[in-house]
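Let us practice reading a record.
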Amino acid sequence: MNELISVIITTYNREDLLERAIRSVIAQTYPAVELIIVDDCSNEKTAQLIERIRSECDARFVHFIYERNEKNSGSNFSRNRGYALSHGVFVTGLDDDDYFLPERLSKLVSRYDENYAFVTDTPARLDKTHRTYPDTNDKRIIGLQDILCENVVGNQVLTTKEKLSGVGGFSPEIKQQQDRDVWIKLILKYGPGIKYSFSTAMVDAEHGSNRITSQIKKYNAYRKLYFKYREHMSEETKSNNLFQLMSFRGFKSSRMNCLLRGRKKDAKLRMKLLRRTLKEMFQGR
């Protein structure tokens, strides 16, 4: 397969990390790549970086596009702008503080199946755990209830531009959990996604830039998605979402068990409740 793949990077005042992300796309073994960078009104250092490496990007990519927003407009606006500018049959994103391993695009596009909404893998994390995953071809089918419970997909997938456009891209009203919102929309319209166990992307949780989302922001984002998609949730999925909402609010396990009494719970949620109860017991000693 040699169809054009469009990679969209959105960025804001992270020129050092952005260069690493760009160079990881330059290093892809897959030849037919378009790179689109949407700058969300950064300072002049980002534009200076682009000018410094523009000739290298023009030589490597089928198309290289750099656009700067007139004002800071947020990640959803920037992502949608990037996807609207794309020419590829396939599209994928890359956060400016993460980076691809060289075979990412080749591996994912060769495993893309039109019968599924998207394909992705299991990104490794750059943090104190330095957790990586085995290079196997094992895969998991991500169904609707899976993604409605929690974001088991991650922050990037590879799909077609047609499918992403078919669900309206990223929803402007969703300020957090916007990735999960799009994965839900894709699965609702096009069926399950595929997630492989190997890793071809690195999520950087070690850098000094602000990547922390406050608990109240997480709570508000989960709550918004809960009410947006509640009608599609099984009773077990609703219970899992309520547990997560209570976790963000710092509820004790005794209160959680009381509020979830009589609700259907799957084995995973029962285990979460048990672990939380045991943790509180040992901390209280």
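A brief commentary: DSSP finds eleven helices and eleven strands in the chain.
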